[in-house]
Amino acid sequence: MKDPQLNSTVLLVGLSDDERYIFGGFLRRMGFLVQAFAEAELALTAGTDTPPAAMVTRIMQRGPMDGIELTRRIRAEHATRDVAVVVITTRIEPAYATAALEAGCDGFILLPASPDLVAYEVERGIASRVAGANKRTRAAATTD
């Protein structure tokens, strides 16, 4: 279960209506605050202004930015580098998984997927990002 001391916002990006309803509802029942965005650009702007704990995004073929490019941009920004990113897709080609992982995603899920798997990957990604941020903070404190 998630730590109540952590940021509890999860952004859903580019998911279908059904996916938003199912995954978003499950995450809400777990105590997360959920916001949905149809377009990656809007989610990136919102996430940079107020970084969420995690983003769940699709590998989308529409629009100028897909889930993989969104992940790259999240990792490139100082404000969002510790946001957990979980990519979900129906694309089974290994190249998509490789590209998502190389871009810096924390979890890669093939659909159809259960809501508890999505929630697990969100929580795992958040825990990993928090641990990484804590490690960087400790390293910076010891070099000062």
Give the fraction of residues assigned to helices: 40-55%
What is the number of beta strands? 5
Sheet of most strands: 5 strands, parallel
Give the low-pLDDT segments: none
User: Helix count?
Assistant: 5
How many separate domains make up the residues?
A: 1
CATH topology: Rossmann fold
> Which structural class best describes the helix and strand composition?
alpha/beta
Question: How widely separated are the two ends?
Answer: 35 Å
What is this entry, summarized?
By secondary structure, the protein is of the alpha/beta class. It has helices at residues 17-29, 40-49, 67-76, 94-103, 115-143; strands at 9-13, 33-37, 54-58, 84-89, 107-110.
Task: From the structure above, extract its key features.
5 helices, five-stranded parallel β-sheet, Rossmann fold, 5 strands, 50% helix, 144 residues
Give an overview of the whole structure.
The mean pLDDT is 86. This protein has helices at 17-29, 40-49, 67-76, 94-103, 115-143; strands spanning 9-13, 33-37, 54-58, 84-89, 107-110. A five-stranded parallel beta sheet has the order 2-1-3-4-5, with helices on both faces. Strand 3, helix 3 and strand 4 form a beta-alpha-beta unit. Helix 3 runs parallel beside helix 4. It contains five helices and five strands. It has one domain: Response regulator (Rossmann fold, 3-Layer(aba) Sandwich). The chain is α/β, with parallel strands linked by helices and 144 residues long.
